[in-house]
Amino acid sequence: MKKIIIAFAFTILPWLAFSQEKVEGTVVEAGNANTLALPGANVYWMDSQIGVATNIDGKFSIPYKKEYNKLIISYVGYESDTLTVNAPKVVKHGLKPSNELDEVVVQQERDNIQKTYFSPQNTVTVNSAELLKAACCNLAESFETNPAIDVNLSDGLTGTKQIQMLGLTSPYLMITQENIPMVRGASQAYGLTFTPGTWIESIQITKGAGSVVNGYESISGQINTELVKPLTDSSVFINGYGNQNGRYELNTHFNKKLSEKWSTGLYIHGNKRTQKEDDNGDGFLDAPLADQINVMNRWQYQDAEKGWVSFFNVRFLNDEKQVGQVDFNPDTDRVDNNRRMFSQAEALASGEAELPILSEAEVWGSEINTRRFDTSLKLGYVFPELPFQSFGFQTAYSLHKQDSYFGYRTYDINHESIYTNLLFNSIIGDTRNKFKTGLTFAYDGYDEMVTATDYSREDRSVGAFFEYSYENLEKVSLTAGLRVDNHNRLGTFVTPRFHIRYTPWEKGSLRGSFGRGKRAANIFAENQQLFASGREIKILNSGGDLYGLDSEDAWNYGVSFLQGFNFLNRKGDFTVDYYITDFKNQVVVDWENSQEVLFYNLEGSSTAKSFQVEVNYELLPRLNIRTAYKNYDVTTDYQSGSLQKPLQAQHLFFANLEYETKAKDNGSQWKFDYTLHRVGEKRLPDTSSNPIAYQLAATSSPYNHMNAQITKVFSNTFEVYVGGENLSNVQQDNPVLGGDDPFGPNFDTTIIYAPIMGRMFYGGFRIKI
Cα dist. 243→578, 673, 730, 759 in Å? Predict the structure, then answer.
């Protein structure tokens, strides 16, 4: 009997093993006569969380399920492949070595917004198709259809949009361009408007602490923009835009492949607004008169055989803005230096016996003129014999000059910046264990004048970093980094960052992260809107090295869960995340007294807590919905007590609907997009010390903000679009407080809690050749 059982077992067990329905195989290097096995290669089903890594012999075994038939095989330094597998089988597949710096991932048609199940970092990628769903004239306007970023007006005059993430404004975000720090220092207030939307290929948004490779300044997250590439962009691209409020833009791209290795592109952007708009009748322009010319020349070099790739950019920008009262003429109405009105403290400090008095006939105005030159170089080399090993070199130089005045206050800043980053990538044992290491040098020279006070300084830092990554697609992947920097003002400090991803079940991805961020606050460049007020500006000097203040230091902790699902045979995903930013020190901007604004070091607690739930689902073929609810609890200890951050809504709701007709052979189709933002009430800064006529309520009222766009694609080369913003026609009643006496103590343009301009329609066209 025992022999019969054994014989039966040997007969049935192979069948049982096969009945588990697995795809097994080996991954090797293609074209290698010795069939070099590739241990640690990633093998996973497309649109799933089912993945494994090959063993030391390059072998793998992955469960087979009928709902998946695209098997992706990837390995650092090799071109990724996608195999069509319709049944359990045994495969042997060879990957071709790639001399590209970045790993190539073969996919089906990409979603407009992509979320990754495998990365330990909570990163969302926004591609160019998503950016075309709105006017998207510049980077600041690229996030209207994305729930990860909040967009608000920074003041009541310039029309500049300020972005926020995790309840914190853009100074606490690291904003990079192709992983080189870009919007920082002098460009913090208006720098997002200096990158035209048509130049952007994709945007990567990372919540929480970023990578140590990119520096120590990231606190609440990182936004990285990838620019269009001369090699892959259209040979000729033309985009025209105009709206009913007199804003006109033109973008042209000219790309040329010069040889097998060299490509170049010339990108020209211009925008202009000469029409004076005062829709609310308060006597002040609702949007600035503007004139910008922005020119970039981009070179791309690629030698696949020898392993070299390089990008070189050079750009010049001239941007001019005029804001203020409708009747302001800068040639005749600018307040002369000899007739400036100072606050009492400023007058006494300057030696004046009494305050200069301005005539009631004076007209308030402001001009902000910026000239910027920047250039950058990225150079990479992949070792042909070791395709998993590479080094990279990044360097950038910029010269940013801003001359501006706000009524009787002047603000001029010149910022010269040098950045260099050298990094080396390789593996430890196999490609499941990777590391990056390198050195960073940065220099920032500031020539800064605030009225009659010189705040010039030089900042220098040098640092080293090491980042280890472990990838096991089946269950766990993590990234742990550490960098040490020495800064002439911040001292020597250590920045740790850690990210981990765990797969509890199919299509589920649980992430956790923590990390430190440290930065030098440029208090005037980051808060320029405060100059357009009658507030007295005070710094409570505590002996620090930055305006008499200490550097900012914070820790960020977060968890996130992503679950993909299929309901009624349609794809969807559900995301919930929670992040806490805990400041150990912060430069507090205190404007709770309506007569002044104070800058001082944090004494006590300052935390930003962010909770978000998001659901994306395909309702019908080509009809998708994206919804999100966000809750922010941002509390700081001010001199007057612990208060919620002013002008920050605690409750926000977001919804986006998109629909596309099926594209014809020539590309012809219709595209429809609608976005709703439900913004909850906001706490307003205290104005109780003002005369009754200039007092505001303690909180603002909730409102709905709606945008929509229709695009008609006539062919693969031509399309037109029309759209509307603020379709609900919401407008703040009094964006300019004390506008009847703009040189008086109650004048304030900074308390902006709702849109200033009413319903606005626009149109444009795109030509691609």
Answer: 39, 18, 18, 11
Q: What is the 3-state secondary structure (H, E, C) of 700-743?
A: CCCEEEEEEEEEEECCCCEEEEEEEECCCCCCCCCCCECCCCCC
Mean pLDDT of the chain: 88
What are the residues whose beta carbons fall under 8 Å from the beta carbon of 670, sequence distance 6 or more? 660, 661, 710, 711, 712, 713
* Distances 486 to 195, 216, 704, 755 between C-alpha atoms, Å: 31, 11, 47, 43
As given in the structure block, the two tokens for residue 521 are 């606050």
CATH 2.40.170.20 in the chain: give the residue spans.
Answer: 123-768
- In this predicted model, what pLDDT tens digit does every residue of 657-711 receive, in sequence order? 999 999 998 889 999 999 999 999 999 999 999 999 999 999 999 999 999 999 9
Contact 159, 153 (CB under 8 A): yes
Contact 551, 520 (CB under 8 A): yes
The CATH architecture assigned to 123-768 reads Beta Barrel (2.40)
CATH topology of domain 2-108: Immunoglobulin-like (2.60.40)
Q: Which residues does 619 contact at the CB level (< 8 Å), separation at least 6?
A: 570, 625
Q: pTM score, two decimals?
A: 0.86
Amino acid code (one letter) for 647: L
Name the nearest CA neighbour of 439 among 477, 484, 488, 502.
Answer: 484
Rounded distance, CA 70 to CA 87, Å?
A: 11
Cα separation, 79 vs 103, in Å, equals 7
pLDDT of 76 reads 67
In this predicted structure, the answer to whether residue 5 has a pLDDT above a threshold of 50 is no
Instruction: List the one residue out of 720, 660, 652 whose CA is nearest residue 681.
Output: 652
Q: In the structure encoding, which two tokens stand for residue 694, read together?
A: 């200039």
Q: Spell out the residues 6+ positions from residue 348 whose beta carbon is closer than 8 angstroms to its own.
A: none
Instruction: Tell me how far apart the alpha carbons of residues 446 and 468 are, in angstroms, rounded to a whole number.
Output: 35
**Residue 199 has which token pair?**
């130049």
Q: Which structure tokens are listed for 636?
A: 């700081």
Instruction: Determine contact, residues 404/412, Cβ cutoff 8 Å.
Output: yes
354 pLDDT above the threshold of 50: no
User: Kind of pairing, strands 596-601 and 606-620?
Assistant: unpaired
Give the pair of three-digit tokens for residue 623: 């009809």
Q: What is the CA radius of gyration of the chain?
A: 28
